[in-house]
Amino acid sequence: MAKRKKREPKDPPPLYKVGDYVSFEIGSGTATGKIVEDRGCLGIGGRRLYGINFHFFPGDEETRYIELPEVDMRAATAEEFVQ
Fold it and tell me: Of 10, 28, 56, 69, which is most buried with the most CB atoms under 10 A?
């Protein structure tokens, strides 16, 4: 009798989706950004990564891009992003 293969564990469901606003620590402060990409479970130990656009300085017109693991973010609001 053939031995059954063990099922591969599925990726956990994401906490955030594209378009959600999140805040995160950067340098000695906190930044708020908008998720623009769900990169999947590519991080160390299978952590889910997200691509985020954020303003480096409050009121700055230029946005920056950063990739962060899900565990380093907290939910935020659009009002916090606009600043």
Answer: 69
Q: What share of the chain is helix, strand, coil (3-state, %, to 5)?
A: 15, 40, 45
Which tokens is 34 given? 């908008």
pTM score > 0.85 for this model?
Answer: no
Burial of residue 69 (CB within 10 Å: 0-12, 13-18, 19+) is: middle
Neighbouring CB atoms inside 10 A of 52's CB total 24
pLDDT at 82 over 80: no
| SS3 sequence of 55-78 | ECCCCCCCEEEEEEEHHHCEECCH
Termini Cα distance of the chain: 65
29-40 vs 74-75, strand pairing mode: unpaired
